[in-house]
Amino acid sequence: MRRGERGAAGGLVLALFLAAIAVAVVALWFWRGWLPPQASEQARGVDRVISYIAAAAGLILVGGHFVLARFVLASRREGGPAYRPAGRRAELLLSVIPVAVMVAVTEVGTMVLGAPVWKDVHTRQPGDLEVEITGMQYEWLARYPGGDGQWGRRDIEEFDGAINPLALDPRDRAGKDDIVSRGVIVLPAGRGVWFSIRSWDVLHGFNVPAFRLKQDAVPGMVTHLRLVPSAPTPPGAPLEVACAELCSSGHYRMKAKVIVLSPEDYAKWLETAPRFGD
Amino acid sequence: MLRFATPAVLAVVSILCAGCGDSKKGGGPTGGTGKDSEPAPAGPAKKADLENGAIVKGVIRFEGTPPQDKALQIDGDDFCRKQHGEGMKSEYYLVKDGKVANCLVYIKDGLQGRYEAIAGNPELDQKGCRYDPHVLGMVAGQALLIKSSDATGHNVHAIPKKNDEFNIMLTKAGDQITHAFRSAEIVPFKCDIHNWMSAWVGVFNHPFFAVTGEDGAFEIRGIPPGKYTLEVWHEKFRVQRVEVEVKEKETKSVEFPAYKAE
C-alpha cells in the first residue's frame, strides 16, 4: 500500500471511530431504556443531570478526539513528526481554555441543573411523612411512628433478631404503636417522605434506583433523604431497594421491596399494620 | 525483582488467610484453632457405660400462662414466605400443657475427666428458613454437620465465646459444612440474611445431656455412679440446678422447680 493510500485508510478508520462515539452519545441522550422507570418526582431532575453529564462528557470526548486527529493528520511526514516546541502564548491558551471549558461544562452545568434537586432531596417540608430506615446485615427495616407521631425509645438490651430487631424498649409507651416493617417499605403516593436513615452495624447504602436516590446508612449517625413517590406501584411489582455499599459476604442478598400505595390504601395499611406493642 | 516479590506475595497470602476459619465446605471433621480459654479436661476420653450406668430422667414444667411467641415478619423474603403460607412464629416458648420443649439438661459438675460421645455426629439443618433442630447437644470434638435444605442462601453464623467464631454462606440446597468445637459452652447460631433464624448448640466434654421434646421429658443414660449437679438451660428462662446422687444401674427421676411467668 502506498503512503497516500495508507493515510486515506487511517483517516477512514478514525472517522468511523469518531462517528461511532458520536452515535453512542446521541443514542444515550435520546434512548432512556437503560434507566429504570422514574418513580419519584425527583427522578426527572436527577435524570436531567445524568443525561447532561453523559452528553457533556461525550461531546468533550468527541471534540478532544477531533483535535487529536487534526494534529495526527497534520503532522504526517517521512521519518516521523518533527519536534516543534510550543510558544509561551500557545502553551498558556492550550492550558487555560480546556480547563475553563471543562469547568464551565461539567461543574457549572452540573451545579445549575443539580443544585435545585440536591436542595429538594435534603430539605424537609412541612407535612412530610417521616420514615426511619435501618440497614443491618443483611436486611432493611422501616419504622413508622404510629398514631401518636412519637418514636419509641430504644434499649440495646432488648435487641432480638427475631421479634425486636430495632431493640425498641417495651416499657416505653411511645413505642407501643410504632410500626416496624421488615424487608417491605410502604409509602403513600404524592406525599413527601423524609427518610431518617441509620445503620445497626456497618456502612450500607440505601438505594432505590427507580427513585434515583441513594444515601449511605452510616453507623453512629442519622442521614436524611426526601422524595415524593410519584404513583402507586402495580400489584406484585414493587420497587427494589438494593444495598449500594459492599457490606460483607451477604451484601448481594441485602434487598427490600418498596410498595407505593394510593393515599387511601396507605391509610388502610397504616390502620391494620401490626404494632410493636401488639 | 522476584526476590522481593515472593516474600511480598507470601505476606499478602498469610494476611488473607489469617481470617480463615476451621470449617470446611463438604469436608470432614475439623478441630478448633486454639483460642480456648478453658481447654477440655486432660487425659484420654472414657467410654460411658450404658449397661451399668445410671439413668436420670424427668420433665421440665411451666406453671401458669407462658409468654406467647410472636408472628415473624417474613414478607420481605419471597422464598421464606412461600414456605409458610400461614406465616411463621418465633419458637422461644414451646410450652404445651405446662411442659417445656427445647430445654437443654446436662451434668454441670461432678464428672471426672472427659467422656466419648454416645450418639453419632449431630446435624443442624436449615429448612423452611428455620434451623432444625432449634436446640441440640454434642460432645466437644464431634463433627457437627451444618447443611441447608432450602433453595435460598443462608448464612451460618456461630457466635461462641470460647471457641472460634465462624460465618459461612450456604448458597443453595445441598450445601453443607462440618465444624468441630473444641471447648464446652452453649453456642448461639444465627443467619445474618434471615435474622429471625436462631439455634443453640450445647457443647459438652461428656455425653450426659438431653434436649426436651414437646412432652418436656428428658432422659440421660450411662451416668457413672456419683454425686452430680444437674443443670437445665432454656434460651429465655433462667438456668436452674439440682443436686443428684446415683448408683450403678439406678433409674432416678429428678424434679426441677417449674418455670413460672415473671
Structure description:
The complex is a heterodimer of chains A (278) and B (262). With 278 residues, chain A is α+β, with helices and mostly antiparallel strands. Chain A folds into 2 domains: 111 residues; 144 residues, Immunoglobulin-like (Sandwich), CATH 2.60.40. In chain A, 37% of the residues lie in helices and 20% in strands. Chain A is built from 4 helices and 10 strands, in the order H-H-H-E-E-E-E-E-E-E-E-E-E-H. Chain A has a 5-stranded mixed β-sheet with strand order 3-2-1-5-8, with no helix packed on it. In chain A, strands 4-10-9 form a 3-stranded mixed β-sheet. In chain A, strands 6-7 form a two-stranded antiparallel sheet. The radius of gyration of chain A is 27 Å and the shape is elongated. The model of chain A has no long low-confidence stretch (mean pLDDT 88). In chain B, 8% of the residues lie in helices and 38% in strands. Chain B has one domain: Immunoglobulin-like, CATH 2.60.40. Chain B starts with a helix and ends with a strand. Chain B has a 5-stranded mixed β-sheet with strand order 1-15-12-9-10, with no helix packed on it. Chain B has 262 residues and is mostly beta strands. The chains are: A alpha+beta (278), B mainly beta (262). The interface between A and B is medium-sized, with 22 and 21 residues.
